[in-house]
Amino acid sequence: MKIAHRPFAVAAAALIPLLLAAASTSFADVAHVGVLEGHAIVARVEGGNVAALRNMPLLSGDALSTASGALAEVDLAAGISLRLDGATRVQFISMLPANPEVRLLAGTIACSTMHDADAPQIDTPSITLRPGRSGFYRVTVAAGKSTIVVHRGELRVITPNGTQLLDPGEQVTIDGPPARPHLRYATTPPGDAFDGFNQSRDAVLLSTHDDLAPYGTWLHLKGYGTVWSPREFAGWAPYHSGRWLWRRGLGWTWISHESWGWRPYHYGTWLDDSTHGWCWVPPRSRAAWMPSNAIFFVVIVNGHTQSVGWVPLAPGEPYHSTLQAYRNVGARGGIVIASRAAFYSGNLVRLSFPSLAQIPGRVLLQAPAR
């Protein structure tokens, strides 16, 4: 028996605002987990703990905890990285680009800044630290003490007794009650494995002017300008390897499993070129961050939502009232469908990639419910 495919037609005016709210809300910038080696947990501001993932966005109020032996790097903004050693817990008090603030609750962090502006304020249980210019700073909280090391730059240590300025090569350990802290000065100790991790990450950031070049090829496409083609396996398509995660204030956000998968999924759009395959088209000018650049739909069978699907938006594409109007619907792997349970659990291991005519039910363009 042939299943009739009924495109979305009814109540289009009511549902398009849902799509606009879900897929076009933009943000100036969003911090995210840039590197993760080992296991870590995010305590979300909206409630609940989830396993940390590379390319996961972090919001004001979130807390990140690393397991023993793990290492993590959080990209707060361009050129500003916060790195966590194992057995470390950090709360992100403010993730606003102009006024970032983090609180180290336990363990060791390092802050690396490549430019002078917008370096984060760092709080410990006893003191406040404010980087004065670009540099590299290490902070440890353990056994009731805060230990600060300045490798590069300068750092203001703010206590109830006044402000002290630390220069490169200096270390200070602070203990005692917060109202009357005791400061002990020393020279920088020998480096350890965490210092080595930081040095290797800084070397990568300083040497890599193009973070996508190691993972693909830049080329010119007529009508689109410079685009990027990822170096992936045959049949690869975007928005296949990863999961959707709901974040309060962001909505449904794509968390890519690809190591390069931050910028191409949150800025710009995708197209399937007949010669080069899927290519990422960067925004023509400085663009705001987006939770994703995909359009959602649900598949209704016998009056119930059976599955959730999505399609990448093509360059310059407006929001349409019918699924077949989207350019990437006809591209290889452009339509992606997951069962309702898989979508909400994030366990996207059994996806299907049907053609428009093969979708087994009634298609309704609609943002998924929370």
Structure description:
By secondary structure, the protein is mainly β. It has helices at residues 12-23, 193-207, 263-266, 340-345, and strands at 31-37, 40-43, 49-51, 57-58, 63-66, 71-77, 80-84, 89-94, 101-113, 121-123, 128-131, 135-142, 145-152, 155-159, 162-166, 170-175, 182-187, 216-221, 225-230, 242-247, 251-256, 269-273, 277-281, 294-301, 304-312, 336-339, 362-364. The strands form 5 sheets. The chain has a 17-stranded mixed β-sheet that branches. The longest helix is centred in the middle third of the chain and has 15 residues, at 193-207.
Largest sheet: 17 strands, mixed
Helix count, per DSSP?
A: 4
Derived from helix and strand composition plus strand pairing, the structural class reads mainly beta
| Unreliable runs | 1-22
Distance between the termini: 34 Å
**Mean model confidence by pLDDT:** 88
Strand content: 35-45%
Large-scale geometry? elongated
Rg calc: 24 Å
Can you give the helix content as a percent range?
Answer: 10-25%
The number of E-state strands comes to 27
